[in-house]
Every structure is written in C-alpha cells, then in structure tokens.
Design a protein that fits this description.
The chain has about 80 residues and is an all-alpha fold. The protein has a domain of about 55 residues: lambda repressor-like DNA-binding domains (434 Repressor (Amino-terminal Domain), Orthogonal Bundle). The protein contains four helices and no strands. α1 crosses α2 and α1 crosses α3.
Length: about 80
Amino acid sequence: MILPKGDSGITRPKIRDVARMAGVSVGSVSRVLNANRTVTEEIRAKVESVIAELQYRPNPTAQSMRGHLTRTVERLKG
C-alpha cells in the first residue's frame, strides 16, 4: 500500500488506512484502539495485525483537534 507523504516527507498511516486494509470501518478500528469489549475477536485480530504491519500510532494532534481539547495546562491569570 502506498501512503501519502506529509510535509516532512515521512509517511504516517492514518486510521482510514488501517480500516481499509483490515476491511472494517473506521469506527471498528477506533473501538479496537479504545479496548471496547463489543468488538469480536476476529475483527480485533484483523485490526491489530494491520496496526502492527503499518506500525500505526494514533496522532495526538489530530485527536486533540477532533475533541477540541489540547490536554495542555492553561496558565491562570490573576
């Protein structure tokens, strides 16, 4: 699978790439990553195999943008 290169020239697989290769939805990949117990062992095994193959790691910046939460400490004025 050929992945698009970012500005730094480094190719980072996205959750969509994992889902496509595993033949499941992005939601299923998310449930595997979040250890949701409703995922079948068959789907969990497929997704975990693709995650290992692609060396996928969630992007914390993308997660914070999606959740509108940066997880940084805010300095209080006063």
